[in-house]
Amino acid sequence: MSKTSGSAVWSGGIKDGKGAISTKSGALKDYPYGFASRFEGKPGSNPEELIGAAHAACFTMALSLILGEARLTAEKMETTAEVTLDKVEGGFAITAVHLTLKGKVPGADQARFEELANKAKAGCPVSKLLKAAITLDAKLES
Fold this sequence. Notes:
Helix content is 33%, strand content 35%. It has helices spanning 35-39, 47-69, 110-123, 125-129, and strands at residues 6-11, 18-23, 31-33, 76-88, 91-104, 133-140. β4 and β5 form a beta hairpin. The longest helix is centred in the middle third of the chain and has 23 residues, at 47-69. It is elongated, with a radius of gyration of 17 Å. 22% of the residues are buried.
């Protein structure tokens, strides 16, 4: 079993308040976040951006494992996870995540690449955590 952590500090009200996000590894240390960075496009981070980065990383690692099981090795894979936050009854919810994957995998064809990518999408621990609809576009590059 593996455990790690992230933390957040917040001071003030929802609109005028300020927060800071940190990770156990130190990759983020007191990185600012707040209402303006979450809803108004201002500098700083937000929870959805962090979930997107975590989902993209988890999915891409899972796909690397699945490719290896199929005796394939990626030369390069790039994944973006677009996270949708919507106003719903009772507040806000992450309603969707769209994964966009570009990969260079010698020996793979598009159909096999999509099959393995969909397996990774379903099996990645972050995908399993999210209740949102998760979609995928996988493009194999030559």
